[in-house]
């Protein structure tokens, strides 16, 4: 279902080659309103400088309950780890706000990120910082094409945005996780074992038939779990690297069901998790532009 509210454009800005993810925690004394106001002010007028897209998200309870701003009522932060039957665990590392910057070159992303941190001086501290970049056009660091099930840009708003008639219309539910890769272990596997773990062929991303029940494709099947819009990116250095999982949805349910399915709740554990480890996990509400504008400082 479409929405008439204008979403944050960066959600759908494909093709950017440099990214930075900054997560913030509110300092003990400041009012959450000050944090939201300063972040909302970043969009005016610096949003388009150097071709940088900004996406702002907030801890759901802070945005909805502390500020009284509209957001889906059932949406909640990632405050409890997701645990599978065999002890596999996805940690909860919820913070108060996220700023995702994406641009054509890292120097402008770097400058805008520093300016944003300076703008929050005395209000919030950087709790987590990650930089990312594309790998071999559309592949992740496993060597497989990422996002094969993603909807087209024409259909993505219907998947990612809260529809009209629901609190927070035009906004989106964002799940962010950082996964580290055991590259050496993964690359030591024969290609057919890698393909069985993913559920697709490596060269051309054709789904296996039959696909293993424990494959990543099977454990994240959107026909069963609900649709999401993924903006994953590789991150890190030569010695420590992995995937930034960035998933948007109109409601939290599909994202939460996906995590539980991958962890092995109610079925086999995702085979890919034998080679990748989640080290962070947070949910944020990404308000529409009009909702943000209500908190932005007025121009003099």
Give the tags.
300 residues, six-stranded antiparallel sheet, alpha+beta
Brief rundown of the structure:
By secondary structure, the protein is an alpha+beta fold. The protein has one domain (17-293). Helix content is 24%, strand content 23%.
List the helices and strands and how they pair.
Layout lengths: L17 E9 L5 H10 L11 E6 L1 H7 L15 E2 L5 E2 L6 E7 L2 H14 L4 E9 L23 H5 L11 E10 L1 H5 L3 H8 L17 H4 L2 H4 L3 E2 L2 E4 L4 E9 L3 H11 L12 E3 L3 E5 L2 H5 L7
Antiparallel strand pairs: 1-5, 1-6, 2-5, 3-4, 7-10, 7-11, 7-12, 8-10, 9-10
Q: Can you offer a commentary on this structure?
A:
The chain contains ten helices and twelve strands. It has 300 residues and is of the alpha+beta class. It has one domain (17-293). The strands form three sheets. Strands 7, 8, 9, 10, 11 and 12 form a six-stranded antiparallel β-sheet that branches. A four-stranded antiparallel β-sheet has the order 2-5-1-6. A hairpin with a 5-residue loop joins strand 3 (82-83) and strand 4 (89-90). It is globular, with a radius of gyration of 19 Å.
